[in-house]
Amino acid sequence: MGKIKKKGSVFRQLVVSYIVFAAVSVILLYVCMFGMLFFVGGGQLESLVPYEMVDEEGNVGDFSSFERLGGWIERLDGSFHVTEVYGDKKDQITAYSMEELTEYLMTDNQVEANTSAGEYRGYLKAVRSEAETEYYLMKIARNALRMSYIYNVGKDTQTTKTAVTVILSFFLLFLVNCLLMSAYLSRRIRKPLRKITEGMEQVRAGGSQVRLEFEAQREFAEIRDTFNMMIGQLESEKLKKQKAEDRKNRMLLEISHDIKTPVSTIKSSANVLEEGLVKEGELPRYYRMIDQKAERVDTLVNELFQLLKMEDTGYRLQSVRTDLCELVRQTCAEYYEEITEKELDFQIQIPETPVYAEIDRKEFRRVIENLLGNAAKYNQTGTCVTAEVRKMDENTEISVWDDGEPVSEELRPSLFDPFVRGDCARRSIGGTGLGLAIAYKIVEKHGGELWYIRRDGKNIFIICL
Predict the structure, then answer these.
(1) DSSP E strands, 393-440
(2) Residue 100 CB partners (closer than 8 Å, separation 6+)
(3) Rounded CA separation 196/204 (Å)
(4) What CA–CA distance (Å, rounded) separates 430 from 148?
(5) Which of 80, 258, 264, 355 could bond 96 through an S-S bridge, CB–CB 3.0 to 4.6 Å?
(6) What is the three-class DSSP state of 289?
(7) Could you please report the per-residue DSSP string of 195-207?
(8) What is the DSSP string of 15-43?
């Protein structure tokens, strides 16, 4: 993989960007100004210059732009009488004296005169021919068009040198301004960048609890907050990974322990049988022992396989639209005899109205069976077991509870972890410790929740879909 080519520093890019931005801004300003003049002049700048509207032979050209500004043109004879008008004449003057023409030709915006020269300015152009001299007077409101004068510095050497000095000074100050502005911006940017870089270096070196703390503009503040959130998530994932690793190690120890005992029993029984040390009347008991231990191992392996299957992210449920009330009702019917044989009152509170959900019937039935089986096994001191289905707005709750002895406080946080069993259960019944873990994973696969609460003297397991 080739190396990624590194670009220049931020400072250099800021300087270049600032210079390019300023130069482009000046160019665009001139383009806009000339564009506006072309628009006003109808595509010809000459149409805005009064003296260019009439040629040397007395032909009046396109003066539409001048006319849009409120101007018009008058043709005068040698005695300054108006002989023809081009455009819309705004005053009633039909003849002029030399003094009046002089007033019109004055360039000041404010002119005190008894004629319309106080309001209108004139531009006079003489057209000479062999017969006579005619005059063309271009008149327009004084506030509509202004005249400007250009001083040609090229005629003066000293002035030229001064102009060159001024231009060079301008460019020098412009560059200094660019450098100062870029340095200021670079400093404002470098500080948060340095903090971010230091934080990344600490993370790369394996540091923990790394947090960025600095004041900056919104963009850098967003990067800071995102970095801190990302580090928090990484720490959380690391903690989860560590817990999963510990859980896996504990599960392996539990598996080895649970398999070792029955396998040892099977092995020792087989050795005794092989050596013929068992009396004829004791053979059935040894065979039953081997069968029970083998069944124990088989059950453990099957439930472990079921747990691993539920934890596999690639495993997909075979969900179909199912009436939860009917499914729970059928499962309760199968466990009715087992529960009542233990002299427990089995109450079933299921509505007659169907409650439908998209579930995997086989897997979800396993959840209900596990909860009912646990209620029957561990309710050593109570008198009843209850299964209930309730519709709660958009959710459905399925609860199984009993009034037996409570789950110990220290056991509750890890109740749904694999191989979690109380001492009483381990001595008297010997469950695998995987039932609740499997039930929890199945409900989780369905997008629901399973939890335990102790309330009003009852052990309540609630499934929320």
Answers:
(1) 395-402
(2) 113, 115, 117
(3) 12
(4) 108
(5) 80
(6) helix
(7) HHHHHHHHHHTT-
(8) HHHHHHHHHHHHHHHHHHHHHHHHHHTTT
pLDDT tens by residue, 269-314:
888 887 888 788 888 888 888 888 888 787 777 777 777 777 777 7
How many Å apart are CA 26 and CA 18, to the nearest integer? 12
Tokens matching residue 12: 């250099």
Tracing tokens 């005053």 back to the chain, one arrives at 91
Q: Quick one: pLDDT at residue 85?
A: 93
Q: How far apart are CA 250 and CA 254, in angstroms?
A: 6
H or E element in which residue 433 lies? none
Residue with tokens 């106080």: 118
Position 71: which residue type? G
Beta-carbon contacts of 15 under 8 Å, excluding residues fewer than 6 positions away, are 178, 179, 182
Q: Distance between CA atoms of 374 and 433, rounded to whole angstroms?
A: 11
pTM check: above 0.85: no
Residue 315 in tokens: 């495993």
CB 460 within 8 A of CB 390: no
Please answer whether residues 190 and 10 qualify as being in contact, where contact means their C-beta atoms are separated by less than 8 angstroms: yes
Cα 25 from Cα 31, distance rounded (Å): 10
Spatial contact of 394 and 455, defined as CB atoms under 8 Å apart: no
| pLDDT tens profile 3-41 | 445 555 555 666 677 777 777 777 777 777 766 656 655
C-alpha span between 209 and 174 (Å, rounded): 47
3-class DSSP assignment, residue 320: strand
User: Closest by alpha carbon to 56, among 133, 122, 126?
Assistant: 126
Q: How far apart are CA 69 and CA 123, in angstroms?
A: 15
Cα separation, 155 vs 456, whole angstroms:
109
